[in-house]
Amino acid sequence: MRVLILGSGVIGVTSAYYLAKAGHEVTVIDRQPGPALETSFANAGQISPGYASPWAAPGIPLKAMSWMLQRHAPLSITPDGTQFQLQWMWQMLRNCTAARYAVNKERMVRLAEYSRDCFKSLREQAGISYESRQRGTMQLFRTERQFASAEKDIKVLQDSGVPYQLLTREQLGEAEPALAAVKEKLVGALRLPNDETGDCALFTTRLAGMAEALGVKFRYNVAIDRLAVAGNAIGGVHCGGELMQADAYVVALGAYSTTLLKSIVDIPVYPLKGYSITVPIINAQAAPVSTILDETYKIAVTRFDDRIRVGGMAEISGFDLRLNPRRRATLEMVVGDLFPGAGDLAEASFWTGLRPMTPDGTPVVGRTGLRNLFLNTGHGTLGWTMSCGSAQLLADLMSARRPAIPHDDLGAGRYAGGGTRAWLNYADA
């Protein structure tokens, strides 16, 4: 079957690779000059199925209000002038109940844990290298209240069979030696030993090369204008003056999926703006060995070979890609506070990207009401974490094979069939 994939980020490239492995003839289109040049380019660098949780959770509305009053706020909201932004925030609030959180959490953990297994198989079979480290990740607590609240997360981890370690202040240095020097600022941590880290852009670029070796064709610098609908199917993709056609189509355009699909399959995927800095290491002994998640500031600090990636924060502000120097100051403050002297902040590069987020936190993967249109989008902050599982699931569905995990509640169908504006009432279902 001829498959046309729209988007060459980590989701689009993994989809191409798994579909090619399944025997399909695959072409990938992207407006950028190469793979992984938007949201996948400089993310936090972690593969963390153990931390797969919806942002919409009980207590979040009150926390959000307090966060926005902080100097180093992990969240900010700027009106973008659209009704869609207001609708999306309202539906996210509607998901901040214990019942909805439990449903959404189970979906995310199911896909993330499956993706971890797929990722491990891919790494072992393909021998792909991307500055990876299999040394776990650590959620760091600065207050006793944060430490105590970890009990709720531990219950979910136990129910899901995810290994974990609850570390006291004195034990932090065993997993992250550099933290021993600043342990008096900290209370403890929740460590997930099975989580991994690495450079997502490097992974995506090298996997794209492997996909090309399997016959996948990549067409870069091609603007994707609109989909041509023919009855109950997609008849092609308008790219400038050209109509590109295939037997099946996959939309993997992240936050830009919503606009392309409007009035065809309306989905609530909204751009959540995040930031990162990448810092050259000047003192390896003072640097982290894996990933630290600072619970207070919602910032991740990740070790690459000779660089530190510091990423996080969320701005609900539409498709604004301007770099805010206040966000850089927050990222520099966190890495300087936890790992003083580890990196050269004066030489750090500053980046921003748009995470594609759904109100319930779960991505949209699978079939649509149009017989040859498939979606793989809306992964939020867990795109790399869920990429291989989402791609394998998609390849199985498109190859008429039975997927390894339940999947009906991962598709657009959970938004009342994906029809125009119908998603606004899905939380009542």
Could you give a short description of this structure?
The protein is of the alpha/beta class and 429 residues long. The chain has helices spanning 10-21, 60-67, 83-94, 98-126, 144-160, 172-175, 200-213, 257-261, 325-338, 383-398; strands spanning 2-6, 25-29, 46-47, 75-77, 137-141, 165-168, 188-192, 196-197, 217-219, 226-230, 233-239, 242-244, 248-251, 270-280, 291-294, 299-303, 307-316, 349-357, 364-367, 373-377.
Topology:
Blueprint (H helix, E strand, L loop, with lengths): L1 E5 L3 H12 L3 E5 L16 E2 L12 H8 L7 E3 L5 H12 L3 H29 L10 E5 L2 H17 L4 E4 L3 H4 L12 E5 L3 E2 L2 H14 L3 E3 L6 E5 L2 E7 L2 E3 L3 E4 L5 H5 L8 E11 L10 E4 L4 E5 L3 E10 L8 H14 L10 E9 L6 E4 L5 E5 L5 H16 L31
Parallel strand pairs: 1-2, 1-13, 2-9, 4-17, 5-15, 13-20
Antiparallel strand pairs: 3-8, 5-7, 6-7, 10-11, 11-12, 14-17, 14-18, 15-16, 16-17, 19-20
Helix pairs in contact: 1-7, 1-10, 4-10
Written overview of the protein:
With 429 residues, the protein is α/β, with parallel strands linked by helices. Strands 4, 5, 6, 7, 14, 15, 16, 17 and 18 form a 9-stranded mixed sheet that branches. It has a 6-stranded mixed sheet with strand order 9-2-1-13-20-19, covered by helices on one side. Strand 15 and strand 16 form a beta hairpin. The C terminus is likely disordered.
